[in-house]
Amino acid sequence: MYAIVDIETTGGHASANGITEIAIFIYDGHQVVQRYETLVNPGIPIPRYVQSLTGITDEMVENAPRFEEVAEEVYGLLGENIFVAHNVNFDYSFLQHHLQQAGYSLRSKKLCTVRLSRKIIPGLPSYSLGNLCRSLGIGITNRHRASGDAAATVKLFSHLLKEDVNKAIAAALSVRSKEQFLPPNLAPEQVFALPLLPGVYYFHDQKGKVIYVGKAKNIRKRVNSHFTGNNAGRKRQEFLRNIYTISHEVTGTELMANILESVEIKRLWPVYNKSQKNIDFRYGFYCFEDQQGYLRLVIEKRRKHTTPLYAFPLLVQGHQMLRSLIREFDLCPRLCFLQKGDGACFPLQDHTCRGACQKKEEADTYNLRVKAAIIHMQQQQPSFAIVGSGREPAEQSCILMEKGRFYGMGYIPRDTAITEGSGMKEWLTPYPENEYILNLLHQYAGANTEGLLKFS
């Protein structure tokens, strides 16, 4: 079966753009046996020039499903069929990228009707879909809409099948013979095609779902190591049987692979990953204003979707820091929740508290010292960048820590200087932090000087 596909998008690059419409026609070589089409909300505004070209507006997709809502159905239509499209790499790259974001791995065989047309019908002045169909007398309705272009591609592909006397289509689909390879359901060429570079790899099950995420200094070597040994245990054999496809993402350094692995495990929650799936019981400093107008510093367990003033792994560490701030900035331990009960705080009795807990000191005056303590605490946290190899010679990698917080990482042109305030964030992708990542980066910064740029 062939899945003849056309999509409309917000732009030309899959990593930075969304899909606005999908059409998939399942074709058995004689007729269309199944048809699927839908508008998609890309989650970003559609540029005006794209709206003019396709006629698809922001209003039209406002109530359309997000891609992740249709991903399972789209993958089901594509997964077992030969992916056919005009300029196939464009459509395939978008769907592969967005399916991977939803936890599916698209590894279909592909056929490009542009390349096939050049081989089967050589000598035409243009092989764009519109010009090609005009040359062959194929009518197109609803041009630059997914269903209209997909329907035209069906007619074009049917024509190519009939005219393919030199078996160009069979040659395009042939795969060089490979020896048997473990796991039993994994095509050997997928392993052989893996790069000898640092990065993250994903094992997918029969439905394309990610079941394991791993990191590697050498992706191919690390993946192969999963399949060595003769452990016949039930869990291992089940794990091997469930691996159908592998995908990967190359990173510039092994450190970046470690970080990305941690992020992906917590994003995808793969069934066979055991480590790093525990909940982070981290603590943080928070500040709020009470009913009397006094700012209160408090240590609490870190809450989801909140950003503490400062985060730390151990409660005792927070108490030590808070006591230090109380001494240095003459804060009230009762207003910082370090002393319970009624009455004056102990420092007031010793004449080392200025009386905020008894309203003897105005809130505005006390709050100035609280704010100064917060600024001091944040300034003590390190800001640095870790610069290393890129994925290719023309770029360098960069990991950014900002006042003790992990901002993100990415790749910067090699001829661009990396300095504080240099605009490096424009090149970086923000990522969520966790205790593992913070500890990893602090340990790395403490043990390495090469590539470490400290900021004030």
Give an account of the 3D structure.
By secondary structure, the protein is α+β, with helices and mostly antiparallel strands. It folds into 4 domains: 2-173, 2-Layer Sandwich (Nucleotidyltransferase, domain 5); 188-268, GIY-YIG endonuclease; 283-379, no CATH class; 383-455, no CATH class. It is built from 16 helices and 16 strands. The protein has helices spanning 48-54, 58-61, 67-78, 88-101, 113-120, 129-136, 146-163, 168-173, 188-192, 219-225, 234-241, 254-268, 315-329, 346-349, 363-379, 435-447; strands at 2-9, 19-27, 32-39, 82-85, 110-112, 199-204, 210-216, 245-250, 283-289, 295-301, 310-312, 383-389, 395-402, 405-413, 428-430, 452-455. The strands form 4 sheets. A 5-stranded mixed β-sheet has the order 3-2-1-4-5. It has a 5-stranded antiparallel β-sheet with strand order 15-14-13-12-16. A hairpin with a 4-residue loop joins strand 2 and strand 3. Residues 176-181 have low confidence and may be disordered. One of its GO terms (cellular component) is cytosol.
DSSP helical segment count: 16
- Order of strands across the biggest sheet? 3-2-1-4-5
The global form is elongated
From the alpha carbons, calculate the radius of gyration and give it in angstroms. 29 Å
- How many runs of DSSP E, i.e. beta strands? 16
Number of domains: 4
What is this entry, summarized?
With 456 residues, this protein is an alpha+beta fold. Helices cover 35% and strands 22% of the residues. It has 16 helices and 16 strands.
SSE layout:
Layout: E1 2-9, E2 19-27, E3 32-39, H1 48-54, H2 58-61, H3 67-78, E4 82-85, H4 88-101, E5 110-112, H5 113-120, H6 129-136, H7 146-163, H8 168-173, H9 188-192, E6 199-204, E7 210-216, H10 219-225, H11 234-241, E8 245-250, H12 254-268, E9 283-289, E10 295-301, E11 310-312, H13 315-329, H14 346-349, H15 363-379, E12 383-389, E13 395-402, E14 405-413, E15 428-430, H16 435-447, E16 452-455
Parallel strand pairs: 1-4, 4-5
Antiparallel strand pairs: 1-2, 2-3, 6-7, 6-8, 9-10, 9-11, 12-13, 12-16, 13-14, 14-15
Helix pairs in contact: 5-7, 13-15
